[in-house]
Amino acid sequence: MKDAFGAPQSLLVLGGTSEIGLATARRLIACRTRTVWLAGRPSPALEAAATELRGRGAYVRTVDFDALDTESHEMTLGKIFTEGDIDMVLLAFGIPGDQERDEEEPLSAVRVAQTNYTGAVSAGLVCAGALQAQGHGSLVVLSSVAGERARRADFIYGSSKAGLDAFAQGLGDALHGTGVHVMVVRPGPVQSAGTAAEAPLATIPFTRTPLVTTPDAVAAAIVTGLRRRSETVWVPGALRAVMSALRHVPRPLFRRLPV
What we know:
The protein is α/β, with parallel strands linked by helices and about 260 residues long. The protein is built from ten helices and seven strands. The radius of gyration is 18 Å and the shape is globular.
């Protein structure tokens, strides 16, 4: 359950090496989160992340999780919930793909779609069901500004995030009143050491403007959104107005914009 400060005491990060996921875990540990599960493919990076968070005072466990292995999700994630209540699940996995390559190699495009959408739908539904069964908790879904409108530069990645965003919004409506809170987070381009793992900066507009964000800024917005019980969070907040305007630009003109 959440503590007196409103912070979740237990956290499950799906995508255990995600920079945004780890930045969020650090902030929540500082707010008294005590148990953290990092779910991802076994790797030195996953173990290093767990060691670092342990050094911050949290009890951290890793679990083998593959977004593409949807048949294993119910068993793998279900076992985590049998260990005790999970107050917050952060769905932070995803791949940007390579637009030029993916257009030439359909199987590569399918991998982007299956990871970012199919895998997320599967994991999201399993976790939502477990949260509902325990009667409380938050499911935070990392979407992207790239899903707001299809663009020539990244429509494969963007379409997968658009599908995920719509799914998460609908799931939030389905769970309304059950005690489970669903929050969709829409970051702009994320500037970080592992930018390619979070969002394809080179193919997202505004990469040279203040609308660029960082993993820590996204993490801060997530923590604030949790406290406010927000349903949708834009990072930075100005993107809400920018994308609202871009959604209404006629397609012939939109094609000519340097976005």
